[in-house]
């Protein structure tokens, strides 16, 4: 919490990072957790999130206020249930800059999609960037708007909207 607030605080000093284990220790932790596939996606989400938060004063102020209101000591439940605006910012970053470029699946049954017949068993690919910026589903799709993911809009929960940044399950 403090590290994020220090990172995005305008005009603040360089954040002081805690002492970290050596690279071999980190490598062993990551290998044992199976995280290598997720690291580039996570890195891209975080870089884009920090860039957006640090470049927009209103967003930065709201995120900092939300983080400063968290209790001490901090626990996972607090991050999951007491940071709705930060969560909405993450969803919006993932929508604008999806970490997975294409999603591949196999059709479970014969179906028609946008006038095209897709037979059962056919391989199907979806381009996430286009679907997450489709003006039919997202008003002003190129604008960073975290409120899409806050009540009452909750656009990521609407079944008709293709929020498929990480996959769609069965097709």
Description:
This protein has 171 residues and is mainly α. Helix content is 42%, strand content 9%. The chain is built from 7 helices and 4 strands. The strands form 2 sheets. A two-stranded antiparallel sheet has the order 1-4. The longest helix has 17 residues, at 39-55. The chain is elongated and about 55 Å long.
User: What is the strand tally?
Assistant: 4
Tell me the span between the first and last alpha carbons: 39 Å
Question: What is the H/E string?
Answer: HHHHHHEEEEH
Radius of gyration: 19 Å
* Poorly predicted segments: none
Gross morphology is: elongated
Tell me the strand percentage band: 5-15%
- As laid out across the biggest beta sheet, the strand order is 1-4
Set out the fold topology.
Blueprint: H1 2-8, H2 23-33, H3 39-55, H4 57-68, H5 76-81, H6 84-96, E1 102-106, E2 111-113, E3 116-118, E4 123-127, H7 128-132
Short summary of the structure?
By secondary structure, the chain is mainly α. The chain has helices spanning 2-8, 23-33, 39-55, 57-68, 76-81, 84-96, 128-132; strands at 102-106, 111-113, 116-118, 123-127. A two-stranded antiparallel ribbon has the order 1-4. It has a two-stranded antiparallel ribbon with strand order 2-3.
